[in-house]
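One-letter codes give the sequence; the fold follows as tokens. Both lines appear below.
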Amino acid sequence: MATLLLALAVGCTGLYAGFMVIFLTGIMPALARLTDAEFVPVMRRINEWVPKPAFLLVFFGVVAFPLAAFLVPVDGRTDTQKWLVLAGLAGAVLNHLVTVAGNVPLNVALAASEGAPGDDPASVRAAFEKRWNGFHRVRTVLITVSFGLLTAAAVL
């Protein structure tokens, strides 16, 4: 059971880290080339479509599987492996804290600005893009490091 949980932790975290890296290196740079009037509605639609069941399963699995892998006792697991799993879990939790405290409020504000007085694409984008990208860089590093730590725990 513990081996399966660690494998699920690695797999889930790898999927999520990959999603974050692709967003950082491909999607956001592509969106940066759009005009303000193009960027704002596209980002609003992305924010509506991403948090669907498949994404949420991975999002919550990134914390649940490493936590379960850490808590399930394993004969023969080294202290190093235990600390790697715990550190990987900590990275995932920090990633989620950045997401919930940084990116989600910006997504909510972006959605709320649609059709509101002052829904000027240039000002909406200026209040959103740079801050969102900053938080996204931090959470991408955190989850990528978490993936590396969990992978190391699995291969030791």
Summary: The longest helix spans residues 121-155. The mean pLDDT is 96. The radius of gyration is 18 Å.
